[in-house]
Amino acid sequence: MSRILILDGSPNAKGNTNALITCFTEGAKSSGNIVSRLNIRDMNINPCVGCLGGDSAACPLSPCCQKDDMDQIYRGIAENDIVVFASPIYYWNFPSQFKAAIDRMIAIVEGNPAQHILAGKKLMLLMCCEEAHNKRNESGVQIFYRNFLEYYGIEGLGVHVFGGMMGADDYKKHPEALIGSCLLGAMVK
Question: What is d(CA 116, CA 108) in angstroms, rounded to the nearest whole number?
C-alpha cells in the first residue's frame, strides 16, 4: 500500500483530466492505496520570483519564502509516497497555473539538496492531449519528466498520455483511456 498525492493541474474541473483522475483513483484505491488530491485551479499560488531563498533544512514543510497555498503542496509531497502530476498538455507543456506550482518546487532543494521532501518519492505523469499517437504533443513533458527525475534524484513511474481529447468531454469517446487510467492506478503499489 502507498500513499498517493494527485496534483490536478487542469484549469477545467469537469473535463478530461478529471475523468482520468477519477478512474485512476478508483483503481489505486482498489489496490489498497490511500489517495489524496489537490486541485491547483482552486489554489492561490504566486509565480516563482527567483530569489533562491528557500531552505528545506530549516522548514521542510514550507521551504519557500513566499507564503501561499503552495505550502499545502509541500506538505502533501512530504506526507505521501507517490506524487502524480495530472494535467492536460497545453502547447507541449503544462497549463500555466500548474507550471507556476512546478516552478515553485525549486525551493524544495534550496538549503539542503541532499535531504529534500521529494527524497525517496516516486513521480508519475497522467496526462491527456488533443491528438492520439502524436509523439510531438508529449515531447515537452517527456523532457521535463526526465530532467525532473534526474534533478531531484527520484524514481519515475512513467509518463502516461491519453490522446484524442481536445473538447472538455472527449473522454466519453475514449473508454479505453478511462479503462487504461483505472488499470494504471490499480498497478501502483
Answer: 6
